[in-house]
Amino acid sequence: MINVVWFKRDLRITDHAPLMQACATGPVLPLYLYEPSLIAQPDVSAQHVAFINQCLTTLRADLNTLGLALLTRVGEALAVLADIHHRVGTFTLWSFEETGNGATYQRDKRVLAWCRANGVAWHESPSGAVVRRLKDRDRWSGIWMQRMRNEPLDAPTVAVQANVQIDSHGIVATAHLPVSGCDKPLRQRGGRTVALADLHSFFNVRGQHYRIAMSSPLSAADACSRISAHLAYGSLSVREVVHAVWQQRALLQGQPPDCVEPGWLASLKSFESRLHWHCHFIQKLESDPSIEFSNMHRAYAGLREDNYNAALQTAWRNGETGLPMIDACMRMLTATGWINFRMRAMLVSFSSYHLWQHWREPALHLAREFLDYEPGIHYPQVQMQSGTTGINTVRMYNPIKQARDQDPTGAFVRRWIPVLGRVPTDFIFEPWLMPDNLQREYGCVLGRDYPLPVIDVIAAAEHARSTMWVTRKGNSFRKEAQAIFETHGSRNPAREGIKVRKTRSVRETREAETSARQTSLFD
DNA sequence: AGTGCAGTTGACTTT
DNA sequence: TAAAGTCAACTGCAC
User: Fold this and answer.
1) Which nucleotide is nearest to A380 (CA to C1')?
2) What's the CA A469/C1' C8 distance, rounded, in angstroms?
3) Is position A360 within any domain?
4) Is A296 found in the same domain as A265?
5) Tell me, in Å, how far CA of A462 is from C1' of B4?
6) A465 CB inside 7 Å of strand B
7) Which of these, A103, A39, A25, lies nearest to A74 by C-alpha position?
8) Residue scoring higher pLDDT (A279 or A492)
9) What pLDDT is attached to residue A474?
10) Average pLDDT of A483-505?
């Protein structure tokens, strides 16, 4: 009986339990599916498929070194599996558990039903630290460490190719698939070789000032690890990266403290905590797939859904809101497929609060624009930055303040909005404040060369803030927020908006203790 | 040298 | 991973 190893978003041969187990069991057929109904989903764009194709190129080469040939097929999972079944009879199916979008979830349910009906055993291995059918969030943090502690698996050393007479479709160009959009020439390259090079340069060169430099879009593209897309498609496993962090930290701690360049240890610590958060967020969508579609806290149902404004959404998507920092970030994202975390939060916050748009359509747009789109991180994050989780405080970003903080000279804005190139720094983040004669002098007439702001930042923020807090003050708000916290909340007291005070008075301490559960939710 | 005061800073609270 | 407001302590300076 042959062993079909179904590669999904785990495009590597190291630290790959399904491949390892299949190789130890019998002849192996490595399979990758281009599933038209999934590729046509509104969260998929051409850059994703092009990146996957680069991953598949190195995966195919790596499998070849084991004596295995990658079979790819364009077709729906059920049809392809049935075809294989028809040719070879029953087989064993091996894969990772996937925490994907609603469409892959439904697909997996159909595959499971088909497997049961056809006597095919489907062995799924856990991905990262994500726990399927998690009962108790309190124990999750320990599970992360448990999962990460073991050494990443080496690639299999012995493998036997299964002999199946099916033609491979090879690497399929995006033009032949029902995918939206175009590839981005400036996006990151994919594949294991690039992934390892990115990891190496981060730990040895780029990551020294990660903790500080991650906030500004000027420095983040270089100072961040840039492994997010490699993790999303599995050319690196989270555990491999965690072990690389630990190894690097041990190396630095083995040196005399004054020989370690400043910044490295704080940066590694900060990076490791984000690897923890990576799985923490995916766990939320795994535990509750409805997060992709509807507000986590029901008190927000109907708040913005009917306020859809096509003109505002188009302006936001095209980087034409008239707010230079918003537009520059969106234009960088559109061109490169990447923007740093703080600016992603700002883009979502601006759409949800200042433009008062429901998060669902903007989330789909960003899913297509983020090369590193990972559903389990994306939807919980979008909801958090839109204020609909109920367990996080309202975090409304002021695009002018963020501009001053993260781009003090205006260099970032000028790079992505050339028409603002000659505008002096005093006006660069609020060009509408320029008198007419200066607008003409600097070659940037508002309404002609660059849009007037689509909303008044102060008034829009005021409206959003008051509406959000009125909703939060509703009678049953806390009760449901408590329930959401039980299922999804972080148990780390320093995280998810829960502040740990350094000092407090006797009275404050007593109050805090008597209402600890409530304050931990709403601080 | 001490006092009054405007302006600044930082910790903490509220929205 | 927010921003704005409050308040008290502190600072620099004129007198």
Assistant:
1) C1
2) 28
3) yes
4) no
5) 39
6) yes
7) A39
8) A279
9) 82
10) 62
Closest nucleotide to A465: CA versus each C1':
B15
Residues 6 or more apart in contact with residue A173 via CB below 8 angstroms: A53
Nearest nucleotide relative to A504: CA against C1':
B12
Distance A404 CA to B3 C1' (A): 40
Report the alpha-carbon distance of residue A382 to residue A375 in Å, rounded: 10
User: What is the domain count for chain A?
Assistant: 3
Average pLDDT, chain A: 93
The answer to whether position A280 is within a domain reads yes
**Considering only CA atoms, which residue is closest to the C1' of nucleotide B13?**
A523
Asked if A205 and A324 sit in the same domain, the reply is no
Q: Torsion angle of alpha carbons A236, A287, A369, A462, nearest 10°? A: -130
Q: Give the CATH number for residue A45.
A: 3.40.50.620
Judge whether A347 lies within some domain.
yes
* pLDDT, tens digit, 9 for 90 and up, residues A60-89: 999 999 999 999 999 999 999 999 999 999
Q: Which nucleotides of B are covered by protein (CB under 7 A)?
A: 11-15
The reply to whether A512 has its C-beta less than 7 Å from any atom of strand B is no
Q: Chain C bases under 7 Å from protein CB?
A: 1-4
**Span CA (A117) to C1' (C2), Å:** 53
Assess whether A313 and A402 both reside in one domain: yes
- Rounded to whole angstroms, the distance from the CA of residue A170 to the C1' of nucleotide C11 is 73
Token output for A241:
């990266």
Burial class (CB in 10 A: 0-12, 13-18, 19+), A478: middle
Give the distance, in angstroms, between residue A85 CA and nucleotide C5 C1'.
68
A341-345, A496-500, A515-519: which is most confident: A341-345
* Same domain flag for A280 and A348: no
Out of A235, A264, A287, pick the residue that ends a domain. A287
Strand order in A71-74's β-sheet? Answer: A71-74, A28-34, A3-7, A92-96, A121-125
Do A80 and A11 sit in the same domain of this protein? Answer: yes
Same domain, A324 and A455: yes
pLDDT tens string A384-438? 999 999 988 899 999 999 999 999 999 999 999 999 999 999 999 999 999 999 9
Specify the CATH number for the domain of residue A207: 1.25.40.80
- Top pLDDT among A513 and A522 is at A513
- The answer to whether the beta carbons of residues A404 and A413 sit under 8 Å apart is no
Tokens matching residue A220:
């983040």
Which nucleotide is closest to A490, CA to C1'? C1
Q: What is the β-pairing status of strands A92-96 and A121-125?
A: parallel
Domain around A370: 292-460
Residue A503: CB less than 7 A from any atom in strand B? yes
Chain A residues 384-403 within 7 Å (CB) of strand C: 384, 392-398, 401-402
Domain boundary among the residues A81, A102, A125 is at A125
Which H or E run includes A73?
strand A71-74
How many residues are present in chain A? 523
